[in-house]
Design a protein that fits this description.
alpha+beta, Heat Shock Protein 90, 3 domains, 5-stranded mixed β-sheet
């Protein structure tokens, strides 16, 4: 599981506290505010019509309703129009309380959307205070004026406070998701580390013991008398089984190292071995590298684990020859004095250097792989030629 998948899982987690509806659906409060403002406007316009109020009063109330509607699309413009309507209603001598309420509701909605609360409150308060001072005071005197200013401040402050609380809640949710994702990533990392530890243990313990078992079986086979054909066949079968254990262990190691990133086809794919060297060389020739191979290894001479290392060494050396060398590359793999000798040589190009192959090995990785098979690796560059030479015991014993 990669990091993106972990983050998606964290975001979909439903175990944490559920946010209030107005946090999850902030438009709900806007709908409530506009619904109340619409009810106030409906009641106010019905009242002025039923009372037979003059046209200036009706137009002032209509102006307030239009400001409320405008604020849905143009918050600042709607707020200014509604606040100006409160001034106009007061100027024509109509009771301004209902229009003030509409202006305060619009102010609440505007500040709830994240607009500047001080600016919005200042606009509403300026029109309220202007009407009070210019027109000689509201009915009820200073108490009504103070209440009007307080309602403006309360509307703006409430909207701003709810917005801040909503943002704080969202910040807490993001932190919770991040913490959950971090725990998931840490758990995945620990599982990966445990897989690698198991893989190392399998390689170091089982691989070594099976190689020793195969070596002793081979020695026992050599020491049998000529007439013990039945015992010899049993030992040959036992050695074959030991090789199979090595191959299957390598597949298990691949599963442990790659974990969820390896497909079923890759897990079941045969491990590269000496028998695949011809195909490997052909693949490089198909992309334009001139390779002169010389392969002479007796069948069954090399343990599978050593054969895999030989294959990877040739693969990495040819990759470097293709990327950084010039001209033809020679590949020589043969049995020499009871050992496996691998030599890959090519002319040095202009940008010679270690390079990772498709398996992720560079020259350093090549050396580590050879040493893990108890082999010996020599890399040198003389007279314009780059040479990789490795030696192995066919049974994986240490090369002196």
């Amino acid at each position: 599981m990669d990091e993106n998948q972990v983050m998606v899982k964290a975001q979909n987690n439903q175990d944490g506290p559920v946010a209030p509806l107005w946090v999850r659906r902030p438009e709900a409060l806007h709908l409530v505010a506009y619904s109340v403002a619409a009810l106030v406007f409906t009641g106010q316009i019905a009242a002025v019509i039923l009372r037979g109020s003059d046209w200036p009063t009706v137009l002032s109330v209509l102006l307030a309703g239009g400001g409320v509607a405008l604020s849905w699309w143009r918050p600042w413009a709607g707020l200014v129009v509604t606040s100006a309507a409160s001034f106009a209603v007061t100027a024509v001598g109509h009771d301004p309380l209902s229009v003030w309420m509409m202006a305060v509701l619009v102010l609440f909605s505007v500040t709830l959307m994240g607009k500047q609360p001080l600016a919005g409150t200042g606009i509403v308060a300026a029109f309220f205070l202007g009407a009070f001072m210019t027109l000689g005071g509201f009915r009820g005197g200073a108490i009504v004026g103070a209440a009007a200013l307080f309602s403006a401040v309360a509307g703006g402050s409430t909207g701003a406070a709810l917005r801040i609380h909503r943002e704080h809640w969202r910040t807490l949710e993001e932190r919770a998701e991040s913490a959950l994702a971090t725990r998931e990533i840490e758990a995945t990392r620990r599982v990966t580390e445990e897989r690698l530890r198991i893989a190392r243990d399998l390689h170091d313990v089982i691989g070594h013991q099976v190689a020793m078992l195969s070596m002793h079986l081979g020695a026992a086979e050599i020491g049998l008398p000529e007439d013990a054909e039945s015992s010899r066949q049993s030992l040959v079968s036992a050695r074959s089984s030991a090789r199979t254990v090595v191959v299957e262990t390598q597949r298990i190691l691949a599963l442990l190292r790659l974990g969820d990133d390896i497909s079923d086809d890759e897990a079941l794919r045969p491990t590269p071995a000496l028998s695949g060297l011809g195909g490997l060389i052909a693949s490089f020739e198909s992309i334009g590298l001139d390779v002169h191979p010389s392969l002479d290894i007796p069948a069954g001479f090399v343990e599978p684990s050593v054969g895999v290392t030989v294959y990877r060494v040739v693969q990495e050396a040819l990759t470097n020859a293709y990327r950084h060398g010039e001209g033809a590359a020679t590949v020589d793999v043969r049995e020499r004095d009871g050992r496996i000798s691998v030599t890959v040589e090519n002319r040095v190009g202009h940008s010679l250097g270690g390079s990772g192959s498709g398996s992720g090995l560079g020259l350093v990785g090549m050396r580590e792989r050879v040493e893990s098979s108890s082999g010996r690796l020599t890399i040198d560059s003389d007279d314009g030629r780059f040479r990789v030479h490795a030696e192995f015991s066919p049974l994986g014993a240490v090369v002196r």
